[in-house]
């Protein structure tokens, strides 16, 4: 236990000084410390790796640090499922799952998040036929508002709330996830002009496991994410496809990209906190419309902004607070350099995305308030009812969530 210590997030824009920071190493220890905090009338929040830039972690009560709550506790090769402790980083999962003949079905371009930090905020990768990571959760174990360890399994009425819970049902201790047989990926990167992107849009989306791109508004934008030089009005295209190779190496770097174990090919983004990101998921049927509208906004009103526009796709799922709930989506993302006044640009993008019926990434910059969230998520009221059942006293909320939940 650490008293009066300061917690800060990765993006350096959120911090708090909790009453105490605890580092339990087992689910039973989590239950014990949470129960003690509840008896004292304190609020409780859990941190992941701190990659969210929204104020979803800060608390003046107890902060649960999952650093010691790590590891794969069981693997069932027959069902393809594994149970993973809450603080396990995605980067630590690839090797042990691979040795068991399994892999995560999808990942994003950063793998430093904890498994529950990523799933609790609906973090996803790309691929029009692939869901986000939260959709693969088949069982959640957490400590509820009574300080008791409970399990929520697929088929339970609370399961769609637990898959993307924002830590509002309780402190998650471990999750069970559905995996795939391990697989290899081949990456191909290329620059494509704006006109070629539009012409081949549907073909690229349909014919590759993963298709995503970063469109450059000017000749400087490539530098933000550490890409090689890409001309203005070109997209840096990333294609990933499964391949069959001899299992004699982990990953190789070829001229056009990498090839190797899936978990080593997915991550490709610099992890230094140089920018803050915003990301919105629109109905996939409006993918071109959203991209073209944002491109026009940047060229016409924000020519000084050096951020690429990233476009990716995801398959629908049934988690109530997933941005992919009930519809296939296209994600639209831009960033602002830390230390610059990016708020006017972000605010304009936020307004544009709201007009397109978008849902924001829970961990990335957005200006959505209670009424906006209620309009964007059709099961918002259902989630609120389940949350009240698991946490009737609001012990797992903070100032941000109390406003959002209208408590």
UniProtKB/TrEMBL annotation:
GO terms for biological process: L-ascorbic acid biosynthetic process. This is FAD-binding protein. Keywords: Ascorbate biosynthesis, Oxidoreductase. The keyword Oxidoreductase applies. The keyword Secreted does not apply. PROSITE patterns: FAD_PCMH, OX2_COVAL_FAD. InterPro entries: ALO_C, FAD-bd_PCMH, FAD-bd_PCMH-like_sf, FAD-bd_PCMH_sub1, FAD-bd_PCMH_sub2, FAD_lactone_oxidase-like, Oxid_FAD_bind_N, Oxy_OxRdtase_FAD_BS. It comes from the Bacteria. Pathway: Cofactor biosynthesis; L-ascorbate biosynthesis. One of its GO terms (cellular component) is membrane. Residues 14-182 form the FAD-binding PCMH-type domain. Transmembrane segments: none annotated. Belongs to the oxygen-dependent FAD-linked oxidoreductase family.
């Amino acid at each position: 236990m650490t008293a009066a210590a300061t917690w800060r997030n990765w993006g350096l824009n959120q911090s708090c000084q909790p009453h105490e920071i605890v580092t339990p190493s087992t689910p039973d220890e989590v239950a014990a410390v949470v129960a003690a905090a509840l008896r004292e009338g304190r609020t409780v929040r859990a941190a992941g790796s701190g990659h969210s830039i929204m104020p979803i972690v800060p608390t003046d009560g107890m902060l649960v640090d999952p650093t010691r709550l790590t590891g794969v506790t069981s693997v069932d090769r027959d069902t393809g499922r594994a149970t993973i402790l809450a603080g396990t980083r995605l980067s630590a999962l690839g090797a042990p799952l691979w040795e068991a003949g399994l892999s995560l079905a999808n990942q994003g371009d950063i793998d430093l998040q904890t498994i529950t930090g990523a799933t609790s905020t609906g973090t996803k990768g790309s691929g029009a036929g692939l869901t986000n990571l939260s959709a693969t959760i088949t069982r959640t174990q957490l400590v509820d508002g009574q300080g008791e360890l409970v399990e929520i399994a697929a088929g339970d009425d609370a399961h769609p709330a637990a898959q993307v819970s924002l830590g509002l049902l309780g402190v998650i201790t471990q999750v069970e996830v559905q995996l795939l047989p391990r697989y290899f990926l081949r990456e191909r990167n290329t620059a494509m002009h704006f006109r070629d992107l539009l012409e081949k849009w549907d073909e690229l989306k349909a014919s590759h496991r993963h298709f995503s791109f970063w469109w450059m508004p000017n000749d400087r934008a490539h530098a933000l994410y550490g890409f090689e030089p890409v001309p203005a009005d070109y997209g840096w295209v990333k294609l990933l496809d499964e391949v069959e190779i001899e299992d004699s190496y982990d990953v190789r770097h070829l001229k056009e990209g990498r090839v190797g174990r899936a978990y080593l090919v997915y991550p490709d983004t610099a992890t230094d906190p140089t920018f803050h990101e915003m990301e919105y998921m629109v109905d996939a049927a409006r993918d071109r419309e959203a991209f073209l509208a944002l491109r026009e906004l940047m060229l016409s009103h924000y020519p000084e902004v050096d951020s690429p526009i990233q476009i990716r796709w995801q398959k629908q799922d049934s988690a109530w607070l997933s941005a992919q709930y009930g519809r296939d989506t296209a994600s639209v993302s831009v960033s602002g350099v830390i230390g610059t006044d990016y708020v006017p640009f972000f605010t304009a993008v936020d307004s544009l995305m709201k007009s397109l019926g978008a849902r924001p990434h829970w961990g990335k910059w957005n200006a959505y308030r209670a009424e906006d969230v209620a309009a964007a998520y059709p099961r918002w009221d259902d989630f609120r009812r389940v949350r009240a059942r698991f946490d009737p006293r609001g012990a797992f909320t903070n100032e941000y969530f109390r406003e959002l939940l209208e408590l």
